[in-house]
Write a structure and sequence with these properties.
The protein has a single domain, classed as P-loop containing nucleotide triphosphate hydrolases (Rossmann fold, 3-Layer(aba) Sandwich). Helix content is about 35%, strand content about 25%. The chain has eight helices and nine strands.
Amino acid sequence: MKISKLKITLQETILVDIEFEILSSLALVGQSGSGKSLTLKALLGMLPESMECELESKSDFELKAGKTLAFVPQNPFTALSPLTKIKKQFFIPQEKIEALFVQVGLDVGLLERFPPELSGGQLQRVVIAMALESQPKLILLDEPTTALDPKTTTMILELLKSLQSEFGFKMLFVTHDMFSAKSLCEDICVIKNGKVVESGNMHEVMSNPHKQYTKTLIDANFANRNFRT
């Protein structure tokens, strides 16, 4: 699918003016304030009324949150109601919930638990299972590993790749973490101040970035990693 135009304005000030294509998995990367979160909100139809949005897309499915679009938020601890059992936070029959739990690597017994009784990694798997319940065509990921430790982060990224292979959905991964982006996505789009700075195949951009902004992001994330080997 291709977003041929996404323009967000506030009182005639252009906040975001970009285009990008999601062939399979795309990382939308940039520092805080670059326009990543606004892009997600625009796709989900969650922009404030004070902002105007022009969105043009070319796809074989309609962009519709809760139907073809699913969302995995940054913090699993705040994504769920703490006073409601896990099983009550889904909208599908329990047998289907249990099947999803197996697919994300969770014990079905956790359905009887409350969110505060689960670890961060378990909660993020619950949220991913919730994203899958509508059988989406595209999953939007808002830095879903930020609140997790490195080991759990690696596990969640591997899970997402495995689930994509199984279910065939596309992914838009919004992050400032170049390491996670490289681990999960085939392509990358780097944005700064609401504009695309550089985009292309993940390996090619990471190995040979053309823009100084991209190089700065890479150096900041990989100062102690031999990521080009």
